[in-house]
Design a protein that fits this description.
alpha+beta, Immunoglobulin-like, four-stranded antiparallel β-sheet, three-stranded antiparallel β-sheet, 7 strands
Length: 109
């Protein structure tokens, strides 16, 4: 009985530690063409910004690794007529896909 209680307590501890280390509270703030993404968790963090919601797919506007709990990037270069962008933040797994919009960009002819 005592051994099963110890194993149960160890399991609860492991689950709580993994929960604490997971990315949470992901938010984005847009100022003109500059986006700041903030999040909580344990580094390193992988950031990707794309024109579509397929976050795990290669390519896109930006892929970066950081140890900071916030990431700022100027999207002025990005040509996207809708002005809508999708992003993901990853430590070990991609979390929910977020989205933000910046002013409508003109298409290049």
């Amino acid at each position: 009985m005592k051994k099963s209680v110890i194993i149960f307590c160890d399991l609860i501890f492991i689950l709580s530690v993994s929960f604490i280390l997971s990315i949470s509270n992901v938010q984005d703030f847009v100022n003109g063409t500059e986006v700041t993404i903030t999040y909580e968790g344990a580094p390193p963090f992988f950031i990707t910004i794309r024109q579509d919601a397929n976050i795990e797919q290669e390519g896109g506007y930006l892929t970066s690794i950081t140890s900071s709990n916030s990431f700022t990037y100027d999207m002025d270069f990005a040509i996207n007529p809708s002005g809508k962008f999708y992003y993901g933040v990853k430590d070990t797994d991609w979390r929910d896909v977020g989205e933000f919009s910046i002013g409508r960009k003109k298409e290049i002819y």
